[in-house]
Specification:
Order of helices and strands of chain A: EEEHEEEEHHHEEHEHEHEEEEEEEH
Largest sheet of chain A: 5 strands, antiparallel
Number of strands of chain A: 18
Strand order of the largest sheet of chain A: 1-2-3-7-4
Largest interface: A-B, 114 and 113 residues
Strand content of chain A: 15-25%
Radius of gyration of chain A: 21 Å
Oligomer: homotetramer
Helix content of chain A: 25-40%
């Protein structure tokens, strides 16, 4: 019941703080016999890596992953896979200001109230640096479900949404915002540049689509596939909302509009729409799975904010340091990883209970 | 790892189908020495009970709960509390149509793809009837955190939102929609009446506020308090989206707008706003906890919808029977119950790890 | 993490007290499509049922099980199976003596120290009556692994061991002691008669063998198949020791004696011995699985014993009522059930991770 | 549900193989604010370290532990504690013989049957080297329950038992066998020397006593304190049996002999005996907790043994390399660690559910 673990048959545990010697993940339950090496993981870490554009933190971390166990002669053995990433650029600085005052919008006060102490260096365990471990674990999960394709992209930054009529999958990797709409990407660039310059930050909405998931994965109630995805997405730093399929918009449709009609298809039913986002009653329908999450603007801003000190005095704080002006950008590969981890686990669970699992 | 269980130290398991002899919940981990009787549970079940207005299903269920274990001489003993509710009004009817065809928007096809069979009587396990068990379990959870007040209400039906300037807590119990705005309640009544008459259904948005939660409950990562609430809410039938605090709106704020500023207060910090919905870094801040969820319109409608049969032939289906034109209404007490269960569990977990727990 | 639950993919939760209205189990994770009715469960309950001979308690319980959920048209649906057994013969009696004093050797004092209260009626939750729920759950588990045969029998009562040279499987069901050696059965009868008459009780050793388990079930470390069996056996009332294979005797062998030599067999290896009890490194080897457990003599005896009262005064206590002079007898079907539950879970886990599972 | 994890509120996960680059443990759920450094852990690792006498393997491992996370300024933070131990002496050798044939008595065949492949280098994950990670985790657990003293020692090697009348706690650390009886220690020395010389190995029995555990820890059923201890002990390499208190001997006592009589004491009851080993109904009684386990003789012996090859041919195998002639010796610190982990977890669980926990 480790609170730093996630998943059931495929279960990973992460450890490490922003400014400790290293961070890592232990992935347990991986099937044996899968080809796996650092080269399968590194590309995903590289997508999340900081310092790649002026729109993300300037911290320089190579994020080189090492596999310390669970792989023999290039194959998974079925035993725990220990993944470690060293922290290289923990820039030496003075944390006395952050240690003495709470940064509004951060976890500082809540941590202190819970634990009676906290590691103030770079946010400690609450730093988004932890998400590198998830991305590494997610790369392992993808190997378990090779027929599932998972792609996340941003659909909104600072209130500016993409134009879905210009949606182009190929565009996603061409700009630093994982934006599927080249025109909007250009707008975001200006927008973010201005926000950064004024010492502010912007929120974002990230969408993730998984195709190739057969009907039947998931479970009807407390571990509904959508409930697992909601848990997974909401566990990512700065996320404040999650939608499946049409999400909030579904609440504004009428029953006959929202029901995804079915026609005979070549291989199972052909659905005439996908308002449900690929999940009904907590179980996959075979349609693409669609998850969307909203991230707040980071509170690490140069604008001074009213706060209090640990001993209860009124104060002001400015968060200097190297921060992402829009944490949503680097959250896209993290959402992909979490979706991969949920789906691979769901496949194993389904195979366990029901004895077969289409696709993998 | 029962997939029909939820929670950690306070953990409940539900069982039962819509048209079986009974449904129930086993609540494990309840602290000993709490006063508990059926009279503590029944009022919450009565709020969720069907057949109370013309805006909910006409199925007549007394929903009388029995405590079968875990209570001795009016006090919890610390052993599992078994709660049972008999199904009384399983109206005898012909399910052959539902058994032979998939109802679009329902779990029918997904269940069949997963299990290779399903119980078609009233939706079987996928029926919202299961939520009665949650409400019963939630009433036990409330006893564990007596200083926490939890109230859910509807803020939108069929796209018609309340006017927050008319928000009146006392109004909630005065109308059949758990609506805190009397004017909007009247609009919803007409709206729902029309939808029902036309054989359609409407979606809804339900909000829940928990006050009295001290700072420090929750956990930083995969079991963040907000991630648990998202999991809990998304596990409720027909829910497609969950927000904490400002949710999606937070993604449209700037960093300095979204940060909840702190001032010295009488008893811990005084926050100048609550965009975060009472949770930072996955841990409660002492502010009210705010959760919002969107429910799709039910697909049980009289309008004929295209579908396929189990053997893959094109067909049409009309869902007769007794259905809620807006399932969001009866979901309000269910969300309250799930929030109570998450919070009581979080209190016990906090007490376990950190050795004390403010409030209870 | 319910402490009243056991298992992983196949997970059951029991509830109920000796003198409450009923007891029961919820079995979650059962594969769909298995034929199941009360008639599949009742024979196992009948084996454990009290009042069948003068060597077990005279409490009269029909132990009729009802399936309340999870089965439709005679087949499991993959949803939770709720099993309930009513308590019929909770003989009205005065519990004030037991409530005021602690019975040495019972859980009375420990429960009180933990919970600050307890249900004194018939031992409440600590009564061996709870094991009826396990037997019912175990009958479901057997359906999941139909090729596995599980048989438990007594090998020792009150220090009198069977003679293994007279071991006869067919004899087990012919005497009230599940004794595979007719000669020893007769000795036990006299022995137990004398113990009962003198107001005393006897301990016992129960052995269980499972054949038909293929190689490969289990897991290498904290959930080793033998560790799960040890947990399962030690969770049965009055059990104080567990052995796998040769158990303690293995500690007195030399390395070359203990190693089970392998020769080419028709279908996998042929082992020349089974000191290991069918498990190596926590994983089944394909040989018969052998578990043995020791049960203490019940402390419910007519001989007066020194004790203290709840308020710390010196006292004496005599445990009247209807008790088993040797609780080991009725523990045999309970051990069978626990072994079935562990093995069925292990099969599902193996299938989940490794994608196939021989035998079932 | 990671199968390489153990515990509930205090939960640790181990990873790593005998001949990989490192092994380690992630300990989650540790309370915040405990003083912890490598110096608190190293002494326990040093007790288990190989190569310290001629009676253990000659592999030279410094077993230097590093704390990679969860500690800030010398105090635990409440976040996961990652512990890593590098493998230094993975002597380069030819594993082709072990890779091609199964060693009888080892996990080789069972692993292969389960996973379809295995890491043959030094036993891979099934090597007792993994227990170093447990010992490191156990040292953290001890900090959580500082008032509990846990001591393990050997009571039998190769069938030669200690004389309890010569039991001397102080003697345990004075000989290489953790033997509390100096006379027997000398006998074991000769015995082991002879076994080693003849290319054989001996089994052992290890006992562990925990004092200072207050009444009330544990739980009545599937997670009985004794069931947890049995699971923990049986998960240690080569263990084939576990006893609590009198264990098998209890099965030969009469009810009135076995019941631990109670008298008024200064601080709770004074028990007149401890047949129960400090646990009744799965809950601690305040008496010393006594666990005993039997370890088989290792199968890594120089005597040739009949076996088969991976492709089913008859063969013989001799296990060369550096092995313990009696694996029970180094198991003593491992049992201490596992007992510490179970008890610390039980304390946290008790505090979570019941709101207080005597002793710590």
């Amino acid at each position: 019941m480790s609170l730093n673990s996630f998943g059931h048959l495929l279960r990973f545990t992460t450890w490490g703080e922003s400014h400790g010697p290293a961070i890592g993940a232990v992935v347990d339950g991986c099937p044996p016999g899968l080809a796996l090496s650092e080269a399968d993981i590194q590309p995903f870490l590289d997508k999340r890596r900081p310092g790649q554009s002026k729109f993300t933190t300037q911290r320089q971390e190579p994020d080189q992953v090492r596999i310390l166990s669970g792989v023999y002669e290039g194959q998974t053995t079925g035993t725990p896979i220990s993944l470690m990433i060293e922290n290289v650029d923990q820039r030496s600085k003075d944390y006395s200001d952050v240690a003495a005052k709470y940064r509004p919008g951060h976890a500082d006060y809540a941590y202190d109230a819970k634990y009676g102490l906290r590691d103030p260096r770079g946010g400690g365990r609450s730093s988004a640096r932890e998400t590198a471990s998830r991305v590494a674990a997610g790369a392992v999960a993808r190997k378990i479900i090779p027929n599932v394709a998972i792609t996340a992209y941003l659909v909104e930054i600072g209130g500016v949404a993409i134009d879905r009529s210009r949606f182009d999958l190929a565009e996603i990797a061409r700009n630093p915002f994982w934006c599927p709409d080249a025109v909007t990407a250009a707008v975001w660039e200006e927008h973010l540049y201005a926000a950064r310059k004024s010492g502010s930050s912007l929120g974002a909405i990230v969408e993730c689509v998984a195709t190739g998931v057969p009907a039947g994965w998931g479970s009807p109630l407390y571990h509904k596939l959508d409930a697992q995805l909601a848990n997974a997405a909401m566990s990512i730093n700065a996320v404040k909302a999650v939608e499946i399929g049409d999400g909030f918009a579904a609440a504004r449709l009428r029953g006959e509009e929202n029901a995804d009609r079915m026609r005979p298809g070549e291989d199972g039913p052909a659905f005439l729409s996908n308002h449900a986002g690929g999940i009904a009653g907590g179980i996959s329908t075979g349609q693409p799975i669609v998850v969307r999450m909203a991230l707040k603007p980071t509170s690490s801003i140069l604008t001074p904010v009213e706060t209090i000190t640990r001993d209860g005095q009124a104060a002001e704080i400015v968060t200097k340091g190297r921060h992402d002006p829009c944490v949503g950008i680097r959250a896209a590969p993290v959402l992909e990883a979490m979706v991969a981890l949920v789906l691979a686990d769901a496949m194993l669970l389904h195979r366990g209970q029901c004895g077969s699992a289409a696709s993998p």
